[in-house]
Specification:
The chain is an alpha+beta fold and 666 residues long. 18% of the residues lie in helices and 31% in strands. The strands form twelve sheets. An eight-stranded parallel β-sheet has the order 14-13-12-11-7-4-3-15. It has a six-stranded antiparallel β-sheet with strand order 16-17-18-23-20-21, covered by helices on one side. Strands 26, 27, 29, 30 and 31 form a five-stranded antiparallel β-sheet that branches. The longest helix is centred in the N-terminal third of the chain and has 16 residues, at 196-211. The protein starts with a strand and ends with a strand. The relative contact order is 0.10.
């Protein structure tokens, strides 16, 4: 799980338990894997992960302290009998709704064979993994397995272990001379892929998995990510090599990497895997499976930077859905529904972490609502209109012309949440359906509002009666003579951009930069498609471009100036709690909304600042890099309403730690 601490660092409470699962039973009796485990015969090319996978995974039950779940000590739940019981229920009650994966997470590993390949713990799985695969396949299900990135410390065996089917290669050839360690727990040696023996070693393990008829592999502790960064934790070569190894088996094996991957390497992940965990473990490592704060709620922020990376063959993975066991889940019914809603509209794989033998009625209805599942399987990820408050509207345009719209109240009090149709590109009447309740609500014009409980949601299908306009026009940058815009719509169609009544740009993409503007002037922009006009947005061009350095402001309450590879060589960190930063006075000649570029550093998962401008506050969650690199600035454009003359901008958050601030530029 993940929790906030005040300062530029992040803790991961689940590290110890997960490590226990990975190395559990290493002293068990060695069960030899056949020296020539046969890969299956060449199969027809099969597309993998065309849709987000659905099923069940074991780790949530391993990770909980809920009474009776792990009776023999931490992470002791996992064994053949328990997995078979879950598979039986999955096949009987959930398979008809699309759930078909049985994923055995950390804890199955017993030892390594004479070639350094993994061996199943015979005490936990007396019939072996091939038998288990045959069992679940016999029920029309798929079997998933788990490994940690790097060369296992026990597998190294002083460098003396030969590599199967690679004459002359030993484990000494796989590592660096200094035996540097890697992965999210520092519990493996980093492999050197400049030596072809390393690829041969992964090939040999992949053949073992294929010989067991495994359908899915989760590779855990991968960096950059898992809140680790730097050379030792750069596992991009491992991921590429695993992708090669799995493909060489001839068996279609879906490939997921975990956890909290860094978006800085998104291109590598997309090219070599079928999905990536965007965040830390959802489990709380406490007396329930999860809690809202640790760590369900952070995913509303953390998934955002990954939205455009999802699609057929590769999906954003939000971790297990633990919404079916009631009290053991650790969250309210409203929270359970919101949890399931976010996973569904984000097209995250839907894999349950609950005890399927104890699903309650409410949970079963959540997990088997076929309309909600259809939204998930459609593969069109929703995105927020904005995230400046706890009352949020997320939306996606569907292939049939309808919209998926989710209203969320993420605040601590009941609240009304409104979807503004004009911002979504909808004009006139629209038909509204409540997806969770599976009933039509009727017609709505202009907007739709709902009163929501604490952490509650309303999931809607909205079908416009007329053609739609470009949606959610946003400013992305500004100079004294230009403004850059983006919007949501189809690429390849014609869009005309207007400043007032004057056409200023035409494009077939969903972004444009309007040039030739006058400094210190206000412009109202509208984007038009086939005569359908977006909701207008207004921005002021700056008189001149000015950068305001954070360290020249007024840090207080523990906020501190640090050196970094930032503009002017410094930043302000330890903002949050009592720590606040007041920026140098910002002066503009004209009142209006300015596109302010914030340069910040957040090397953990997403952090939220409370930005107060002339006494008025809004929330600002920013994307984290998950790689512990607190020296590399990131940038985001924020629309901020400023008064003519002097303005005061302050960063803080009384409840949690905030990103470090480098500068703002107007």
């Amino acid at each position: 799980m993940r929790w906030k601490t005040f300062g530029s660092f992040e803790n991961h409470k689940g590290v110890v338990l997960r490590a226990l699962g990975v190395v559990a039973g290493l002293l068990a009796s060695l069960i030899a894997v056949p020296a020539s485990a046969q890969a299956p015969e060449a199969q027809q090319v099969q597309k993998i992960a065309e849709k987000p996978y659905m099923g069940w995974s074991s780790w949530s039950l391993q990770a909980t302290n809920y009474p009776g779940v792990n009776p023999d000590g931490p992470a002791s739940w996992l064994n053949e009998k328990n997995v078979v019981a879950q598979a039986d229920v999955l096949a009987a009650k959930f398979k008809k709704h699309g759930y078909n994966h049985v994923n055995v997470d950390a804890g199955w590993l017993g030892s390594f064979d004479e070639y350094g390949r993994p061996v199943v713990d015979a005490k936990k799985f007396p019939h072996g993994m091939k038998w288990l695969a045959d069992y679940v396949h016999g029920k029309g299900l798929k079997l998933g397995s788990y490994l940690a990135v790097g060369l296992g410390l026990k597998a190294y065996n002083d460098g003396k272990t030969p590599i199967h089917n690679a004459p002359g290669c030993t484990t000494k050839d796989l590592v660096y001379p200094d035996l540097r360690k890697t992965n999210g727990w520092d519990m493996a040696y980093k492999m050197n892929f400049a030596n072809p023996c390393s690829q041969a070693y992964l090939d040999s393990i992949a053949k073992v998995l294929a010989g067991w008829d495994v359908d899915f592999l989760k590779l855990d502790g991968v960096g950059p990510g898992s809140f680790k960064g730097g050379e030792n934790y750069d596992n991009t070569d491992d991921v590429k090599a695993w992708n090669t190894a799995l493909k060489r088996t001839g068996r279609p094996i879906e490939f997921l990497i975990s956890w909290a991957l860094s978006h800085r390497q998104a291109d590598v992940w997309k090219a070599n895997t079928n999905g990536w965990r965007v965040d830390t473990d959802v489990e709380c490592y406490c007396d329930t499976l999860v809690t809202w704060n640790n760590s369900v709620k952070i995913r509303w922020n953390d998934v955002v930077q990954w939205i455009d990376d999802a699609g057929p063959g590769r999906w954003n993975n939000l971790d297990s859905i633990n919404v079916g066991n009631g009290q053991m889940d650790g969250i309210t019914e409203a929270e359970r529904r919101s949890y399931m809603t976010l996973w569904a509209i984000s097209n995250s794989p839907l894999y349950m972490g609950d005890d399927l033998t104890k699903i309650d009625d409410f949970g079963y209805k959540l997990l088997t609502n076929d309309e909600v599942i259809a939204i998930n399987q459609a593969g069109i990820p929703a995105r927020p209109v904005d995230q400046f408050s706890d009352q949020q509207v997320w939306y996606a345009r569907n292939a049939d012309g309808s919209y998926t719209v989710a209203l969320f109240n993420l605040g601590s009090r009941p609240a009304s949440v409104t979807a503004d149709f004009a911002r979504l590109g909808i004009s006139g009447n629209a038909r509204v359906r409540d997806v969770w309740e599976r009933k039509d609500i009727g017609q709505a014009n202009g907007s739709f509002s709902a009163e929501l409980p604490v952490h509650g949601t309303k999931l809607l299908k909205i079908t416009p009666r007329s053609a739609v306009a470009p949606a959610v026009v946003q400013g992305t940058a500004a100079t004294p003579t230009s403004v850059s815009l983006k919007w949501q719509g189809k690429s390849g169609v014609r869009y005309d951009v207007y400043a007032g009544n004057k056409k200023v740009a035409t494009t077939t993409s969903t972004s444009a930069t309007v040039t030739g503007l006058t400094p210190a002037s206000s412009y109202e922009f509208t984007v038009v498609q086939n005569g359908n006009r977006s909701k207008p947005v207004s921005f002021v061009t700056p008189k001149e471009t000015v950068t305001y350095e954070a360290e020249k402001g007024s840090p207080a309450g523990g906020a501190t100036v640090y050196g970094c590879a930032c503009s002017n060589g410094s930043k302000v960190g330890f903002i949050g709690g009592s720590g606040v930063l007041t920026m140098p006075t910002v002066n503009v000649p004209r009142e209006g909304t300015y596109l302010v570029e914030l340069s910040y550093i957040d090397a953990s998962s997403s952090r939220t600042g409370v930005v107060t401008v002339n006494g008025t506050s809004f929330k600002l969650p920013v994307a984290g890099s998950n790689d512990d690199n607190w020296n590399a600035p990131q940038k985001v454009t924020v629309p901020i309403y400023l008064l003519a003359g002097n303005n005061t901008i302050r960063f803080g958050n009384p409840d949690e730690s905030v990103f470090d601030v480098d500068s703002i530029r107007i």
